[in-house]
Design brief:
The protein is α+β, with helices and mostly antiparallel strands. The chain is 42% helix and 20% strand. The protein contains eight helices and eleven strands. Strands 1, 3, 5, 6 and 7 form a five-stranded antiparallel sheet that branches. It is elongated, with a radius of gyration of 41 Å. The N and C termini lie far apart (136 Å). The relative contact order is 0.08.
């Protein structure tokens, strides 16, 4: 029976876990209205004990300007927490930041309350009020460069316009020189047949395949419908094709093919073999549909 006495005494005198140590501090206790205050919360907690941070949603007479994240450091046998805040007040008077409650295990730990004096800026009532001054114009150091900047932008704009005009003329000359003796339809069909024989998708040249398919269709539209298709974006070309006479379903397929060409060329999208064959047939069918029927010999007599 007496053998259990030391063990019982030892259990009764087992040291309790150290309490959590919490602290709230500010960098100044007297401010002018609207002046920021740096507010810091710290807590040192024994390890392996649940710990809850206090709610910091509102403070009476104060406003939150900024809330930092909670920094954590692990030390031997304990954990250390710290969080910075920036607060201010727009109410003059002597106010108190109340005690904030932390929860460490089943026990509460509270910070000390902090008193802050919020006041207006001092002024001497014996002195006269200053009149409102007129607006003072500050010389702009860039003002002397404005004529030069405007002139440079004008010259660059003119040069760009000239370059675009010349580029358009060069494209037209190339098309004119390369115009074969074949009709637009015959030329397009011939080039489509050659493209099919090259088997570019099989060889991994999918970008070249779609670029060539798009080019054949655009050249045909330029020669047959006099649409400036080579200088237009796909969306501009789609808008013009709405009045070309294509059936709605066929028009949707052509629009989808033109957009797919942009995806392949600019977004590096890789369609499958079935998609490549489908888009080839869409362009071939569209060219066939846009080709006017040959004149009836009986009507020409």
């Amino acid at each position: 029976m007496f053998l259990w006495l030391p063990a019982m005494l030892h259990a009764q005198h087992k040291p309790a876990p150290a309490p959590a140590i919490v602290k709230a501090t500010i960098d100044k206790d007297s401010i002018l209205i609207g002046q920021p205050i740096q507010f810091m919360l710290e807590a040192t907690v024994p390890d392996n004990i649940p710990f809850a941070w206090p709610a910091t949603d509102t403070l009476p007479h104060f406003e939150w300007l900024e809330k930092g994240k909670i920094d954590t450091a692990v030390r031997p046998g304990q954990r250390y927490y710290r969080q910075y805040f920036t607060i201010t007040s727009f109410d003059s008077g002597n106010w108190v930041i109340p005690r904030l409650t932390f929860l460490s295990g089943t026990k509460k730990a509270m910070t000390d309350s902090i008193r802050i004096d919020v006041r207006y800026s001092k002024f001497d009532p014996s002195k006269d009020f200053h009149d409102i001054k007129d607006i003072i114009e500050v010389p702009n150091p860039w003002a002397r460069w404005i004529p030069w900047i405007v002139g440079a932008v004008t010259l660059l704009s003119l040069a760009l316009v000239v370059w675009l005009i010349r580029k358009r003329k060069v494209i037209m000359q190339i098309i004119t020189r390369q115009t074969p003796l074949l009709s637009p339809f015959e030329e397009a069909m011939k080039q489509l047949d050659e493209l099919l024989k090259q088997q570019l998708p099989v060889n991994g040249a999918i970008k070249t395949y779609y670029s060539r398919l798009d080019e054949i269709f655009r050249v045909y539209l330029f020669r047959r419908l006099n649409i400036h298709s080579l200088a237009e974006t796909s969306e501009e070309l789609i808008a013009q094709l709405r009045s070309s006479g294509l059936e709605p379903a066929q028009f949707d397929s052509v629009a989808e093919t033109l957009r797919m060409s942009d995806f392949v060329k600019f977004a590096k999208y890789q369609p499958g073999m079935a998609d490549s064959e489908h888009h080839y047939q869409v362009i071939r069918s569209a060219i066939t549909a846009l080709e006017p029927p040959p004149p009836n010999p009986q009507t020409t007599k």
